[in-house]
Amino acid sequence: MGRHEQREQVFMLLFRVGFYAPEDMPAQVKLFLENSETELQEKDAAYIEAKEEAVREKLTQIDRIIDENTEGWDTKRMGKVELTVLRLAVYEILFDDDIPAGVAINEAVEIAKKFGQENSGGFVNAILAKIAKQGD
């Protein structure tokens, strides 16, 4: 499984954060990995689980950064798809040294286009470009 597919799986798993209490997430992770429509190799499942957990551990900080870089929006008003994509990408831009900011942004825009509404890609791109510029 390539990085793009892994990232989509992390996105789908992270999407559940908006619907379940933090204490329920370990069970949700287990269910997700066991019932995935995509056949997951052990190394892919381990990567997906570790990445989701790493993002979730920094959610408060990530959400604060998103809120600070949006005008007229905040994490409580955003659509769940856009918020989840932003959370994953902000984590990759600021906390994952293995992923260049440009790659994180491009991947986030593609996921937003695939799973979000018509203008989700542009919305996500604008916010992430602003965040990435501050990180330079």
Description:
It is a single chain. With about 140 residues, the chain is an all-alpha fold. The protein has one domain: Orthogonal Bundle (N-utilizing Substance Protein B Homolog, Chain A). It is built from 7 helices and no strands. Helix 4 crosses helix 5, helix 5 (about 80-95) packs parallel to helix 7 and helix 6 (about 100-115) runs antiparallel to helix 7 (about 120-135). The termini are far apart.
Write a compact overview of the structure shown.
By secondary structure, the chain is mostly helical.
Class of secondary structure makeup:
mainly alpha
How many distinct folded domains? Answer: 1
Q: Rough shape?
A: globular
The number of helical elements comes to 7
Please give the largest β-sheet. none
How far apart, in Å, are the first and last alpha carbons? 31 Å
Low-pLDDT stretches are: none
Total E-strand runs = 0
The H-level CATH homologous superfamily, spelled out, is NusB-like
CATH fold description: N-utilizing Substance Protein B Homolog, Chain A
Q: State Rg.
A: 14 Å
Proportion of residues in β-strands? under 5%
Query: What CATH architecture do you see?
Result: Orthogonal Bundle
H-E string: HHHHHHH
Quote the average pLDDT. Answer: 92
Text of the CATH class: Mainly Alpha
Q: Helix proportion of residues, in percent? A: over 70%
Describe the SSE topology:
Elements: H1 3-15, H2 25-34, H3 42-57, H4 59-68, H5 80-95, H6 101-115, H7 120-135
Helix pairs in contact: 1-3, 1-5, 4-5, 5-6, 5-7, 6-7
Task: List the defining traits of the structure above.
single chain; 136 residues; mainly alpha; N-utilizing Substance Protein B Homolog, Chain A; 7 helices; globular
